[in-house]
Every structure is written in C-alpha cells, then in structure tokens.
Amino acid sequence: xxxxxxxxxSFGKQKVLNGVSLKVSPGELQVLIGLNGSxxxxxxxxxxxLLEPDKGKVQIxxxxxxxxxxxxxxxxxxxxxxxxxxxxxxxxxxxxxxxHGRGSEETFHHMVDLLALEPYxxxxxxxxxxxxxxxxxxxxxxxxxxxxxxxxxxxxxxxxAKKEHILPLFRSVLVEMNIPVLYITHDPWEAExxxxxxxxxxxxxxxxxxxxxxxxxxxxEQALCDGE
Amino acid sequence: xRKVSTWELLxxxxxxxxxxxxxxxxxxxxxxxxxxxxxxxxxxxxxxxNTLITAFFAALLGVLLALGFGYFYIFHPxxxxxxxxxxMNDFPIALPHTVAGLALLLAFGRKMFxxxxxxxxxxxxxxxxxxxFFVSYPLAARTIAASADEIxxxxxxxxxxLGDSPANAYRRVVIPVLGEAxxxxxxxxxxxxxxxxxxxxxxxxxxxxxxxxxxxxxxxxVEEGEIGMAVTASAxxxxxxxxxxxxxxxxxxxYARNKGCI
Lengths: 228, 262
Ligand SMILES: Nc1ncnc2c1ncn2[C@@H]1O[C@H](COP(=O)(O)OP(=O)(O)OP(=O)(O)O)[C@@H](O)[C@H]1O
Ligand SMILES: [Mg+2]
Known about the structure:
The structure holds two protein chains of two kinds. Chain A is α/β, with parallel strands linked by helices. Chain A has seven helices and ten strands. In chain A, strand 9 (197-202) and strand 10 form a beta hairpin. Chain B has a domain at 42-213: MetI-like (MetI-like fold). Residues 40-41, 80, 152 of chain A line the site of magnesium ion.
C-alpha cells in the first residue's frame, strides 16, 4: 500500500499542495491527472524523498517513510524525461541497482523479455528512440524490485501512434508486479489506456474520480478559466 | 563590394597589432645561437622539468578540490560552506598574485610552519605547486560548476531511488557525466599553473635548478641580459601553450561528435 496523508507543500508564498491524501493498493494502477503546473511532479518528489513536505505523512507498505532519504524508500521512479544514464549502456542502466544488492539477474532477464529490450542491451541511451528510452527507464526502475512505482509522464517523448502500442504493454508489465503504481499524466486519453483507477489534481488537492471522462470535463473547465 | 563595418575596422588592426604581433615578435626573435645556448643549459631543462611536475600536481589538486566544490554545488547549495566557497571563486579575480604569494608565505612560511623546515614550506617545489594551485583552483571550480549546472537533476533523483547515497550518485553518475568538464578543468588549471609567475616567485622563490620554473627562468634571463635565451625559453612556453589549446579544441570536437543525441 502506498499512502499519502494530508501533505502540504509551498514554495515561498505559492501553495502547491494543500492537504493531499491518496491511497494506492498493490496491483492498482492509479492515474493522477492534472494540468501543467498543478503540482504533480512536486507530489512525486515528496513521495521519493527528494523533497520534504511542509506537513503530512508518506507510508509505503505500512511503514512511515516520511523521514527517510530516497535510497532507503525502495521506490521505483520514472521521471518526465526518462533520465537514462548516458555514459552507461542500456544493460548497465537496467542493472544499476544491483550494485546495492537490489533486484537480480533473473528480474533483469524477465524485464528485458517483457519489454523486448534484448537487441538494444549493448547500445547507449542516445541511440534509442523515445519509446525505447521509456522502456529502458521502466525496466531500470522495476529491476530494482521496488515496493511502489511512480511514473511521471513517462511517454511524453513517444508519438501518438506508438503510444497505442506501448500503453497496454506498460499496463500489463506494471500490473504483473503487483505493487502500488501511481502514474501521472495530463492526458485523459492516456489515462484511459493505462489506468485501473483515476484521480485528479486540482487546486492543490487530489480527488478520486470514476473515469477519465470526468477529468476531461474538469480539465476543459479549468483550461477555459486559465485562458481568460 | 561589401561595406566594411566600424567594428571590423576597429577589431582587425588592433587585434593584430596588440595580440598577434607581440607573439610573432617572440617567434621572430628566436636565433640559432640563442637556441643552442638555451638547450645546452641544464638549468633550462631543470626549469622545464620543475614547471611540468609542479603544474601537473597543482592541476590535479585543483580538479580534486573543484570536484569537492561541485559536490557542495549539487547537494548542499544552501549551506554557508557552499556560499563562502562560491564567493571565493570570484573574489581573487582582482587580487594581484603577489598578494597571493605573500598570503601563502605568511600562512605556510617559517612563522607558522617552522616544524616543516628552516623556511617552513616556502621555497620548495611543494611551495611552487601550492602557489600554482592557489591561482588555478578557482578556474577549475568554475569550469566544473558551470557544467554541473547543466546536469539533469532527474539523473541524480533516479540514482538515489535506485539505492545511491548522494556520494554514490556523485561518483557513479555526476562524475562520469562531467567527464569532459573535468578534462577541461584539468587542462585549464594546468595551463594557468604554467603561466603563474608572481605567486610562484614570492612563495616558491627563484632558485635555479631548485624552484625555478619557466616563467621565472625567462625573468632571470632578461635580468641577466641573456635576451637570446629568454626568447628561446619564451618560444618554448608558446609552444606548450599552443599544445594545450589544441588539446582542448580537438577533445571538444571529439566529444561533440561522439555524444550523439541525448
Ligand atoms: N523547486 C521549486 N521552487 C519553486 N517553485 C517550484 C519548485 N518546483 C515546482 N515549483 C512550482 O510549483 C508548481 C507545481 O510544479 P510541478 O512541477 O509540481 O507541476 P506539474 O504538475 O508537474 O507540471 P507539469 O505538467 O508542467 O510537469 C509550479 O507552479 C512550479 O513553478
Ligand atoms: Mg511535472
């Protein structure tokens, strides 16, 4: 279980998170939809431990991790622009956490099979297309056998046609891991393709919604307000 | 015909008169006799050796310390230590290097470092290297900080979630990614070290065959009226400098070609 309770965060006078609470169960793939600048990345950074909340708690697997540094939280993280290590090969990227005894060769091979990365293992990230860079970033995070997964718009660099193929693939791989997954996007269509549950971020709060269609309405309404 | 702008009229003659012409004057004044006498002078070769050895270690120390600064820059930019260190990188710009030499002399000379020898650390090769380091470190630190500024912080974020402490992430991700900047920082500090005269002579002295470096060798030869030898040693310095600049340029091109799209 991944749980956030009553998290607040401001940057100077700007209140970004205003008492956010959220629960994700193992096997659940919750998509968090929010407009640009609504605080999605800030929330993920608080979950990974890269940013400290002003107030509130973060729990993973029933353990309070609010005070722990990122390396002790066992969270998988795929950031917005994949952040692959350009000096390492694809294989070395995926096996990065093995250095700390996390994951195994076995998980590695499993991930490589699932994500069809075999032909690219010897390449450098700079030689891959956007879609394959996302796959490597996902494989790298999952190979460390995390207790929860966070993905921040992981396929921004993939074109629409390929998204239709990659989203179901990611969904099946993530669901198979049976850990809580929080997936962030500002695109309700993408949310529909990958999510098993949905929530929306608005005015520093997160609310559960029943379908991404609801997000469409809210996103449109807010976009109109912002446009004025 | 193309109209020549004022800036071109200003730049071309002044640049050639004030920058290129003096360098050419050295090269033009090199004589066979001066060369023969200089290359037969064992003191000259000692100066070459001293220069290369001290600059090598000064630049090494400079890069090591600059990497330490880079660590603070990335992981502790809010701390007082970082703020002081950052300020100190720029602050010596207007400082005459005789002041730097005197500062080192007072700090590590006979008075404070009496236990290290009759003159403290002063007037040894170590002193020469420390003086070179003192003036070249800010250059290395700024080179590395400028590149660290461009690092994608998500790289470090991901490394941390995969189990790296800040020190681990610095060693496994930041330093390799900074590779090119570290190399530039080294070459720049090495070059800056070769060229240092004032701080070196104040703290390291100018004992031929002992602590004399190329810069002080040229100075001594001019004083002794041995212009032919001073010119030859100077031309040698120009050659070294040229080599370093070419190294930086070629390396830069190599990196640009091998980086690919990221
Ligand atoms: N370190 C920071 N210092 C100051 N303000 C920040 C910082 N990080 C984020 N912000 C501000 O907080 C707000 C939320 O930013 P955040 O990156 O969390 O949004 P986001 O929902 O991820 O947006 P996007 O869809 O563009 O990725 C923005 O207004 C941003 O300017
Ligand atoms: Mg974001």
